[in-house]
Design a protein that fits this description.
This protein is an alpha+beta fold and 625 residues long. It has three domains: 197 residues, Aldehyde Ferredoxin Oxidoreductase,  A, domain 1; 186 residues, Aldehyde Ferredoxin Oxidoreductase Protein, subunit A, domain 2; 162 residues, Aldehyde Ferredoxin Oxidoreductase Protein, subunit A, domain 3. It is 42% helix and 13% strand. It contains 26 helices and 17 strands. Strands 2-1-6-3-4-5 form a six-stranded mixed beta sheet. A four-stranded mixed beta sheet has the order 8-7-12-9, with helices on both faces. α19 packs across α24. The mean pLDDT is 97. Bound molecules: tungstopterin and iron/sulfur cluster. The site of tungstopterin has 31 residues, from β5, β11, α11, α12 and α13.
Length: 625
């Protein structure tokens, strides 16, 4: 069987920064076929190799970069990579997805994944040049921002080199620091940048010259070519190329789901000044994208006036939503400046926007004294106050030392009901969709395997089409289906999901491409089963870390239940806890989990996770049969 095994290098590169050593571990064909790559590899490695209870910022935590069997191949939008770790923001499983040359270079260098453990004695960076691996001194790079660092490393290693790095936020262990690449690609919202910083690891540079293994490269090229052509034929293609993810902002306003003033409202009075059309007409100066993509969506806008005049930044919807309306800012010139600061410093824009909005409201309500923010008084729409607040969070000054831990811990520290307006689930801040009107999207946030991210099930669009007020079992089935496709298939094959989501690329391409690349055809049933196995194992990981679980952990912030919208066409709307609980019951039932959200023993056995079930029982965690 081994000789006929294609599609994977079957090699995982381990680097131990404490001991200054590296080695390669081989994975078996069974491992590859069961877990495919990306998120599948990541959770399996974390489950097997991370000691339960490890402090996420200790040397023992593992930082994993994993590609998949389709990554880097000549097919739509395949230049992606998953970064994963035990999260310092949530205490559970965390991951993110970065579009970067580093994904392709890692494959060409001959690896399916890189796992970093230990902590370097002094600031360091790793250089991987095919099978040569060096740990180098990064004392002169420490403190550089993303732009400076990228320029410096490009000067040293050339444009071909793939790079992953952290900004000062990662160095300062801000719990929502991301891993950056190519100046403005970002991944690992649940603090993967802080994990990198805790290891004294400033950057990873990868250069590869080898082949990417495929069973039938001609077939991959042929199917890939057809898929590229379908992408371009999509009726939405031209609009997508013009506005990218920003195209959704006007729709969010229309639907009352645009996060406004810390998710108090779903419509923003300044929305018309910052939407996709305005971005494309008045601010866009060029667009860029990830490797192998023919629908590039990195729209770079330039500030035309004001304090940030001449600054350029990539304008994705989430960045604009969270650093615009959610802070009451209606000027794209200012938003560009804030996004650029976040990219350069290496903050996650979503959690940053949410944390600054939380602080604004806490000050407004008298729960937080500006004196504890070094005199900075954050105010809706006041960009200068947010520039200053960002610095305070970065440096951990005053209450900034708590805000840098994210909204959940900050709310616990403040008490007095602050947790109701800390817009997070499991500790990860909600992405840029207000869910006052949307029980389905609320459930998607509640059950996302990393905390409140939209990546696994961006259900809001489908939910609007079906009707926000139809809260039936089918809604839950659709959410789970999306989780299987987006969180399962795309995060393990490791390609961008946007060809499927935004221009409607037929999903049938993916099993066919997998077969051409690996020689194994997995139909949708088998793929969904694989996705469910991953979801189960991720949930077990959380339960193992926490030692308990209950449905509150899968419930979105109380603001959406208790405080109706006060403006816009859906004025008065709010979530209903009984409706939410019914949806959650159905969700658990369909997944084969018990009423507390813990996978049943029978479910785990059916998925080949009997040993993992036994481990939990040995730890004293009772599983329902
Ligand atoms: C993703 C999250 C998102 S989701 C956005 S914008 W989006 C934010 N982008 C940030 C940024 O930029 N700078 C910054 N400092 N922080 C940021 N945090 C936010 O991170 C991204 C694209 C986008 S743009 C999306 S939806 C899709 N996400 C994919 C995914 O998750 N999986 C997948 N297989 N394909 C995807 N394709 C799309 O990729 P996280 P990127 Mg990102 C400036 O990282 O942790 O997953 O959070 O990766 O290379 O920047 O591409 O409207
Ligand atoms: Fe990257 Fe956008 Fe292309 Fe996806 S669609 S690969 S995020 S440029």
């Amino acid at each position: 069987m081994d000789n006929e095994f294609y599609g994977w290098h079957r090699k995982i590169l381990w680097v131990d920064l404490s001991r200054g050593k590296h080695w390669v571990e081989e994975i078996t064909p069974d491992f590859a076929l069961q877990w495919i790559g990306g998120r599948g590899f990541a959770i399996r490695i974390l489950w097997d190799r991370l000691e339960p209870g490890t402090d996420p910022l200790s040397p023992d935590n593992l930082l994993i970069f994993a590609v998949g069997p389709l990554t880097g191949l000549p097919l739509p939008s395949s230049g992606k990579l998953v970064v994963a770790s035990k999260s310092p923001l949530t205490g559970g499983y965390g991951d993110g997805n970065v579009g970067t040359k580093a994904s392709v270079q890692l494959r060409k260098a001959g690896y399916d994944a890189l796992v970093v453990t230990g902590k370097a004695e002094k600031p360091s960076y790793i250089v991987i040049n095919n099978n040569e691996v060096e740990i180098k001194d990064a004392s002169d790079l420490w403190g550089l921002d993303s732009e400076e660092l990228d320029n410096e490393l490009t000067g040293r290693y050339g444009r071909k080199a793939g790079m992953l790095y952290i900004g000062p936020a990662g160095e300062n262990l801000v719990r929502f620091a991301v891993v950056m690449s190519e100046k403005d690609r970002a991944g690992g919202r649940p603090g993967m940048g802080a994990v990198m910083g805790s290891k004294n690891l400033k950057a990873i540079v990868v250069v590869g010259d080898g082949d990417m293994p495929s069973k039938d490269p001609d077939k991959v090229r042929e199917i890939g070519k057809e898929a590229y052509s379908d992408v371009k034929k999509s009726p939405n293609y031209d609009h997508w190329m013009r506005e990218g993810t920003m195209g959704i902002l006007a729709w969010c306003q229309e639907m009352s789901v645009l996060p406004t003033y810390n998710f108090r409202e779903g419509v923003f009075e300044g929305a018309d000044k910052i939407n996709g059309a305005v971005m494309a007409d008045l601010f866009k100066v060029f667009q860029k994208g990830c490797p192998q993509c023919n629908m590039v969506c990195g729209n770079v806008g330039e500030a035309k006036e004001g304090r940030f005049q001449g600054i350029k930044a990539e304008l994705d919807y989430e960045n604009v939503g969270m650093l615009g309306p959610n802070l009451g800012i209606d000027d794209l010139n200012d938003i560009i400046g804030l996004v650029k600061m976040a990219d350069n410093l290496g903050f996650d824009t979503i959690s940053l926007g949410s944390t600054m909005a939380f602080a604004t409201e806490a000050v407004e309500k008298g729960l937080l004294d500006p004196k504890d923010l070094n005199g900075v008084k954050p105010r809706w729409g006041d960009t200068d106050s947010y520039v200053n607040l960002m610095e305070i969070i970065l440096k951990g000054e005053g209450f900034g030392s708590i805000l840098k831990l994210g909204t959940k811990l900050a709310a616990i520290k403040l008490g007095d009901g602050a947790i109701d307006f800390a817009m997070q689930v499991k500790g990860l801040e909600v992405s840029a969709y207000d869910a006052h009107v949307a029980h389905g999207m609320a459930l998607a946030f509640g059950t996302s395997p990393i905390g409140a991210h939209h990546k696994d099930a961006w259900y809001i669009y489908r939910e609007a089409l079906r009707g926000f007020d139809v809260n039936d079992r089918k809604k839950v089935e659709e959410i789970i289906e999306l989780q299987r496709i987006r969180g399962g298939l795309f995060e393990t094959f490791v390609t961008c999901r946007l060809p499927f989501v935004e221009v409607g690329l037929n999903l049938d391409y993916y099993p066919k491409l997998l077969e051409a690349a690996t020689g194994h055809y997995l139909d949708m049933n088998r793929l969904f089963n694989m996705a469910d196995r991953i979801y189960d194992l991720i949930r077990l990981f959380w339960v193992r870390e926490f030692g308990w679980w209950d449905r509150k952990m899968d419930t979105p912030p109380m603001r959406w239940f208790k405080e109706p919208l006060t403006t816009g066409p859906r004025k008065g709307a709010h979530l209903d806890i009984n409706v939410y609980n019914q949806l959650l019951d159905w969700y658990y039932e369909i997944r084969g989990w018990d009423r507390n959200g813990i996978p049943r023993k029978s479910t785990l056995e059916a998925r080949g996770l009997a040993n993992e079930a036994k481990m939990l029982e040995d730890m004293g965690i009772k599983l329902t049969p």
